[in-house]
Fold this sequence. Notes:
Number of strands: 5
Mean pLDDT: 82
Distance between the termini: 79 Å
Number of domains: 7
Number of helices: 49
CATH topology of the largest domain: Serine Threonine Protein Phosphatase 5, Tetratricopeptide repeat
Strand order of the largest sheet: 2-3-4-1-5
Radius of gyration: 34 Å
Low-confidence stretches: 85-95, 338-343, 968-989
CATH architecture of the largest domain: Alpha Horseshoe
Shape: globular
Strand content: under 5%
Helix content: 55-70%
Amino acid sequence: MGLLHQPELEPGPHFDLVDALHRLHDQAGQPSLRAIARRAGCSHTTVHHLFTHPRLPAWSLLEAVVTAIGGDPSDFRDLWLAATADGARHLPPPARTIAGRRAELLVVRRHLEAGGGLLVVTGEPGIGKTTLLAAASQQVSTFVARAGGLPILADAPFALVSDVLRRVWLDDGGRWFGEALGRCPGFVAPALSRILPEIGLSGRDLEDRFASARLFAAIESTLAALSSLRPLALVLEDLHWSDPSSRGFIERHVVGGRGVPIVGSLCSGGSAEADAWLTRVRREAALVLNLAPLTHKETREQLRLLIGPRLRRGDVERVHAQSRGVPLFTEELARSMTANAEPEPLADLLARQLDHLSPSARSVLLVAALADRPLPPPVVADATSMGRAELADARRELVSRHLLADPYAATDVTVRHPLTATAVRAGLVPREAVPTHRRLAAVLAATSHPSPAEVAEHWRGAGDPREELRWRVAAGRAACDGLSRDEEAVHWERALALWPADGPAPADAGITRCELLLELVHSAIGPGRAEQARSWVEEALALAPAPPDHDHARALRRASQVLAQVDPETSVRLADEAIAVLDALDDRDSLVRAMGDKSGALRGAGRNDEADLVIDRMLAISARLDDPALHRDALVERAWHDIVLGRTAHGLRAAREARTILVEGNPFSDVWLGTYHTDLLLMLCAPADDVADAADPGLAAVRAAGIDSFLLSTMLLCNVAEARLHAGATGAASRLVRPRTKDEPRQATRFLHLTRAWVEVAHGDLEAADRRLEAIAALDFDVSAHRQAVVTVQALCDLWRGLPAQALDRIGDGIAGETATSWSPYTGSLLCLAARAGADVTEADPARRAVLAARLSAWQRQWAIDPLAPEAAHAAAPATRSTWRAELARLHGVAQLQHWIGAAEQWDLVGRPHEAAYSRWRAGELALHEGRDTLARRLLRRAHAQARGHVPLLAVIDRSRAAVPDTVSSATLGGPRVPKPRAAVRERG
């Protein structure tokens, strides 16, 4: 083994310690790192860090390694104490010794040091999850940031994530954190300040449409930068009590082995929502470690640690039988054991521990139990009106009774275990907690960065609806600012329930009833809630108009935006109201954005002419403003609308003009522009190279800013891959998406996996495509066009697998109730696939012909505008219409050669070789059936050339070519056959 290098250290006690450690290693014969690790019970990576990392190691780790290589731990203890700042006064808490759990401890330790992704430790309350994570954290050289979910903060946005980041921030006064932020893109710090106000930045753009994407990307970028400077792992306890937004980030960040290693603990059965989350992340490759009860032998080991080596006969059996191997119960029962008494039942023991407390100790314990989270001593002192000395005495009394966490392990005041806090709360008489909740609410509200959700909960416990309403509104707005819609909905619904029934709200509520209803629409809209949202909107608009106010306009706009997909007419009404308010306020920037809301809603309602006028005004105003990003947005809106209305040249001109506008430091907007531009080019069936060229600036922004998990980043890449697929370059499409689809499909990568499934269909890997599509279909696609895209690929897979009836049923289910306008790029092609499936079914069962024809006709008529009509916006509409006609004729048993040849020529015009090959194959089949062998041969030869890269299509074409009779003899033709150039061959019937 090569020599281990010593870290560069200044002369002093730390240098002496490291030098002695390396000399001991040399004297031991330089054993390998793996050999040392096996003896010390840790990983070789940990041993390597111990020898080479400049950070002072934990004593427990140093002691184990010194022993493993034959050294005297007492000698190194003195060196280690000398290297520790301020001597023994600031020593870290002694390493925890736990009974059993050796295999589990090794798993957690290795994950913290060299893991990736998520490891979740599960088990019943008291099973030892916290003890295991604490022991593992103290035995690794990696910096472990720990935080825990809290019931009182379950509705606070990103509470768990912000807490664990705050722990990193506080480690060295923010120096490590500040250096990491310096390595991140410019958008990271302002975005992160939404959930970590300690950063001290302000002035966030409330109109930022990419705020959610920025925040997720900022957290990921920060963690990556932190771990690049220093090994980092996160321990997140009590995930069953954490807020949904934090769980959402964990799922997004770590599934698939990405990001810093995270170990979480979750109480089995703690909440249905958390259990569903665990099932989902487990399916997506997260590791789960379930802690079983301790065995009889391990309980004996725990009792020896607790009460010494001398155990009376029968003690272990009695304790293990009553505790069922749950370590917390064993610990509490062991404390109640006396020489002549049986262990008390745990419930009686917990209740008895609360008796005979001094008034001061009981007051501190009550504050800690009702706060249900660690509290700094000054906050506890204010909440109990105690002096410093009295509080210290009360803490000592509670620690001695094992009711509070040891102050050496936690400087904050916290109940030792949640079961103890539950027992305290359960023993309260009615209204006993009210004054404590009131004091906690007042004290916490006065801190530098209070959590409005936490303060609101304490005012709720205090029974003060007026104060609770005020803080609920603040909590709703904080959740909105923190981009946590689930938590936001909880607070707005509670605020509505608190609203006085007999009059207006207090003046200090900070919101009108109209705005409250609109905020509720924005946060609570979702499946099955459209009718309820409509009633809230009607009530809000019926209220007396408020004076022009920015908050009111913002509430109108937010409600309009979420209703655009489910109720475009109501969305238009709300946008009109917002425009009127902003006009009165003369807020030109917000006015342009509100016009963008209105134009989109008008288009969704099929009122394109009105949208045209709105966009004209939007462009005129934005051109006079000093905001290039806003004007670029308006140009993209104009380009999209012109393409929809068939004004192709005007639309492309607007898109090119938008592309010339540079907006510094806004990579998300660059990606958005690229996505819209490539969408337009796909609708126009532009060459694949033109699509790739339009995507290049956006993809460059993705690489520079590290925002590859941004949803629009994945869609932009998929647009380029889709253009390659349409051009017949399936290999090029595969090379784009394959590196990003090695894990299981999940929400953030659903479009990449959908494109990968499309590639698999073309490559003939139909079983793999079907499995992938099944996983994709379980994910959420909340836009009609995206749902149609999924059904399109599913139907293609079914048809090439020979399951036309399944494809037909799948299409029917996929478009049931859809009435969107025809500019979705998938609607026409989806109807063509339905006609193809129907024709395939009738070939096997002619009796179903009339029923299927009627079903197809109904599907065509259900859309607001016929997607197969001549005025349909998509450039492939003529080819789609020709294919639809040819498939319907096949369904009715009257297939005609000229229909299929005409469809092939239309597909040629838009550069779709695989669709053209399919049409020529159908035409060749008909020509063969009619005995026109020469024409059949020519059609199938051309089809074979165009079908390159599409394995299932090539297979059926080759079967048809094999059925063509041999070439007509030259004697029959009157002489030798002279082949014509391919370009001269004309396909005429």
